[in-house]
Amino acid sequence: xASRLLWASSAASYLRISVSHRGxxxxxxxxxxxxxxxxxxxxxxxxxHVESGNLVVExxxxxxxHEWVKVDGKTATVGITDHAQDHLGDVVYVELPEVGAAVIxxxxxxxxxxxxxxxxxxxxxxxxxxxxxxxxxxxxGLVNSSPYEKGWIMKVEIKDDSELxxxxxxxxxxxxxxxEDAKH
Amino acid sequence: xxxxxxxxxxxxxxxxxxxxxxKVAGRRYFASEAELKKxxxxxxxxxxxxxxxxxxxxxxxxxxxxxxxxSTVNCRQNGSLFDVSHMCxxxxxxxxxxxxxxxxxxxxxxxxxxGTGTLTVFxxxxxxxxxxxxxxxxxxxxxxxxxxxxxxxxxxxxIEEHMKAFKAKGGDVSWHIHDExxxxxxxxxxxxxxxxxxxxxxxxxxxxxxFRMTDINGAHCFITRTGYTGEDxxxxxxxxENAVDLAxxxxxxxxxxxxxxxxxxxxSLRLEAGLCLYGNDMEQHITPVEAGLTWAIGKxxxxxxxxxxxxxxxxxxxxxxxxxxVGFTSTGPPPRSHSEIQDEKGTNIGEITSGGFSPxxxxxxxxxxxxxxxxxxxxKAKIVVRGKAYDGVVTKKPFVPTKYYKSS
Lengths: 184, 408
Fold this sequence. Notes:
The structure holds two protein chains of two kinds. By secondary structure, chain A is α+β, with helices and mostly antiparallel strands.
């Protein structure tokens, strides 16, 4: 019980306290970007804080496995959520898929490594990978500092729009995170 | 990411970190939070933002508000204070405690000067490691020993069994388990100056591996100049009722530079220092020779044997071990425990036992066992992570130079 409360309350302070020091891959560059994290967040359209202090973006869709997807016509941009990066801690490596690879909704397509843990990442949509965020090879910390923008992981040409209804909207996802945290 | 929540991920990390003897402690990992043991510093951890996770049956902080990356770097720049009260300290007493202990460990205990200690290994009949441990000769009739939390039950059972047999033959040995005490580890370049504020004893005269009983912050403490980070520092056994006050005093004396540090950073620090984690890098079937701890087998012990599994170990010393623990640096994702190691042609030559991203070196470091012949520094290898082979190279340990406080 104690640790549950702690986990949630520490999450809020996390964003403000640790993020500005997370640059390690190419420090000068990241420092600038990370120093701007608060600004970036404020600049995100329709963002809101969930109870834990983590952010969700209203127009994005979310998988229960903590990936987000931003749909723009046939193209879906995919990344991991603020909640996910916060729980993972300092991201040190992102294993990107290959351009041209086929991904399937709910199937693994890569991995995120933090100092202490490896987490598989699952595609929230099915389709072909058309672009990957090469920036993450040199600056994996972008996943922490800018999970919804500069920390995007891949872009997918969507095969089937109707799959999107299997995903949560921001309110549903925020509620899901709260319930998940509350279990512990 | 999938699964019943990332908090569980935290737990699985801890399980991986712990990797203690699963048969003994396995059940406890899944014990409900209420069943977990708490150190006397539990409330202090929570008040300081500690993220408490189950570890070897205890609720311990994996990190505080600082990230693991920040904590690791700060330990080497300034200092860290760890609560390691989950570890088990005990004393062996009696005029025969030294010959008794020599049956169980590889160290030349008789040759230790009073007030000095060493890292050693408790071995089984096959020469495998039951646990690694720091043992200290307080006096010729008093040994002070600290063993891993996750090995406590099996270690104590093992020692007790041998003690019964030893006493039955008339040997004079008894023990006292220091459950009335707590254990703090103070590590890093500011450790000595911070601690010096709290004791009249001259810490400049206490060198690496040395032990003293002394008053610290008004409490009767055992201090050993040792640690698990590669930095200078101390492990302080303090009466439990004085532990919180001592922790507060140390943090205060460092003016906030020494930070509370959790098990996450502790694991990064020991890996950077090339130190084994029992359960990962050393197990029941691994001998001290294979684990690179040949230096810890006393010269007299190499000649005489007389400890459990000595035949196996002395034979390995003569013939050379078939596998050896080595360090690696690598490209790609950080290797983790159980990643396969291949030679350049893709043939299996071993397995990683610990690995991760080094916060201080900003690159991947790992340790693992390879077949002898592939163990020399500079040997190129492949490390397989999620089905893909990445370039690795055998690298001398420690990865980060150690800074022990030695005379001369």
